[in-house]
Amino acid sequence: MSAAWRIARRELRGGLRGFYIFLICLALGVAAIAAVGSVRAGIEAGLAREGAAILGGDAQAEFTYRFATEEERSWLESVAEEVSETVDFRSMAVAGNERGLTQVRGVDELYPLYGEVVLDPPMDIASALERRALPGGVMQPVLAARLGLRVGDTFTLGTQQFELRALLQQEPDSAGAGFGLGPRTLVTLEGLQGSGLITAGTLYDTQYRLRLPAGTDLEALENAAETRFAESGLRWQDSRNGAPGIARFVDRLGAFLVLVGLSGLAVGGLGVSAAVRSYLEGKLDTIATLKTLGATGRVIFTVYFIQVGILSLIGVGLGLLLGALLPLALGPVIEAQLPVPAVFTLYPGPLVEAAIYGLLTAAIFVIWPLARAQDIRAAGLFRDIAGGGMSLPRWPFLLVIAALSAVLIALAILFSGAWTLSLGAAGGILAALAILAIMAGLVRISARRLARSRVVRGRPALRLALGAVGGPGGETASVILSLGLGLTVLATVGQIEMNTRKAISQDLPEVAPAYFFLDIQNDQLPDFLEIAHAQDGVGRIDTAPMLRGIVTRINGQTARDVAGDHWILRGDRGVTYAASQPDSAELTQGTWWPDDYSGPPLVSFAAEEGAELGLSLGDKLTVNVLGRDIEVEIANFRVVEFGDMGINFVMILNEAALAGAPHTHIATLYAEEAAEGPLLRTLSRAFPNVTAIGVRDAITRVSEALGGLAAATSYGAAATLVTGFVVLIGAAAAGTRRRVFEAAVLKTVGATRGRILASFALRSAILGAMAGLVAILGGALAGWAVMTFVMEADYSFQAISALTIVSGGAVASLLAGLAFAWAPLAARPARVLRSRD
């Protein structure tokens, strides 16, 4: 070890020449993972610090379709210093002939308990909402612009007029409110009393935000609330997790981006391996001399492993520095784009995680070339043949590489918390590398045969390019592996993004409803149907009773203890009733109840969701509807196609089970596009309490919500591609020595500079195109897997994205090849050939 350390230290005195690509590749991969982890930690810290403001209180009790009872309100007031009551629902805001869907929040005089509502013009929220001639209201600028409203104008919610006092610029608890289909409008609870919008059976939620005494034990208080009101349908939330939906989204997005970063690190690992191999080729004389003087293969391996280890620490350190500083430098910009607060500072956890990933990746990719170099004999080294051959390292080294790879995958699972995603990403990367390696071999064989065929006769530049691609010791494998993997990641993200957008905006059913109508009162339904059917261009109208229920127990046990965090259990779900089997209901198991059934409550459950929850025929579910627990038995399972945009319910109960429960109706209306505007105006005037949701508007809102996710994944893939380009440049730079000798020989036999340059350009373009073709295959397979098994959606190959990948790979490889072609062209043949004597 002392001799190896001494030799390694002396060689490092020569500087970092030959290792710049090594350092850049390693630093970029580590920086990407560190930066993503730091941003995620910053968001989590912001959510924790501002949890009370995001939630609107230290804790919150929420009810569906009802306000708190006197007993519930009394208990909440007994444990809190202040209790603020709000109500949240969707409605139509009307101004003249203009109408717009809005998410209305009715607030009391204590709102907000934490944070501040920012208005334009500046004023406090109490002044903006106070009753003068009319009650006041504020709304987001996009809704005011849509309705043509200015401050001082009036608008209508239901049957109540309001005066627009200001535009809503910032709502302190907006992040905890979840996804809404319409912009926000704030009014007072008192102002809503004359609107006709808050009545029995209409769709609304109430929230009671609590300001708690300092030092309150939130966990103990949550347990007390859930124990005391276990059967009331109360949903508890506190500042420990003020925005659970956003926190869950951040965790999943962060895990996904870390795995994309690992893909980038794998691409960088290929560059690290190529850089080590190129460096060792430049040290042939040194290695040959050391072996001639008696140095063993183990000593040679140790010498260069020490050098690479020191440089790996430098590369990881540079990556950590970059990954830590980028979020700090760009913190204000990032925070301005986020819907939640973030605290950007140095977080040791993500940096340690990135360092471990970087060091393991470096070890995995440097052992291979070092192990191969130590097995070459001194005579072979003196003959300059180290770059040839494809022999494998000895089995102990292969075992070490496999063990380190397993550790890396295990840590990815541990750190990301998503074992299926981690295993899928690891399998995808390994499969992509295997396919790329096979492809590189096939390209070499095919190029070698084409170079000798009659097809290329009379085309010396093409023949020379094919000969170089198919020859031993070239950059074929390096370019196809590095650029191909980078392009594969980008192609995968491109296929997923375009398929997701297509699924939302294009893959609608052939006949989709124009509007969903909510909160149609029982006595309004006949008139609603009569007026709607009388309008020109109106086709089918479907209606159904509408209630909301929370699944609290499965077979007597707490539902979450049985089925985990399934989306069915995260909140209230739509519930309806039916006497006879609907025409569209396709049963997969069980039978429907008789039309006159009046026995114990029964339910028809969605088959796919039932299987995910582990339910069987005869199982008992406890569903809380309007604070009343109903225990229902599963009578049948049926197919539910949410993608048809029609009326679909996870749960349909028998009619007698919900007898007497106040409820409203919903309707889906199918109409010609030209009839949609007049229809909406007519129905809104006749039924001001009814809320209309336009399908096109809903699709636009969902598409906008997905835009941030698509952008984030695209940025992650772009970072991987940048690393791939760096590796490509490194491969081109490493091949300069070989090209200089090649150009010298060609010049000697009479080739012109133009022909040599054309040969170099064709070679680079061929390699880039081959890498792009493999990326198309890999991206298509990975995109299909994600869409089919993760997103459970249809997949179709996106040709535009694929063609962009192919052309981008060819152009990138061509530019890199040309950038390093000038030195070989300028070299003098006599000097070059004399030095290789």
TrEMBL record:
Residues 260-373, 718-823 form the ABC3 transporter permease C-terminal domain. It comes from Pontivivens nitratireducens. The chain crosses the membrane at residues 20-39, 253-280, 301-334, 354-371, 392-415, 421-443, 464-491, 715-735, 756-787, 799-827. Its main location: membrane. It comes from the Bacteria. It is found in: Cell membrane. GO terms for cellular component: plasma membrane. It is a multi-pass membrane protein. This is Drug:proton antiporter. Signal peptide: none annotated. Coiled coil: none annotated. Keywords: Cell membrane, Membrane, Transmembrane, Transmembrane helix. Residues 23-226 form the MacB-like periplasmic core domain.
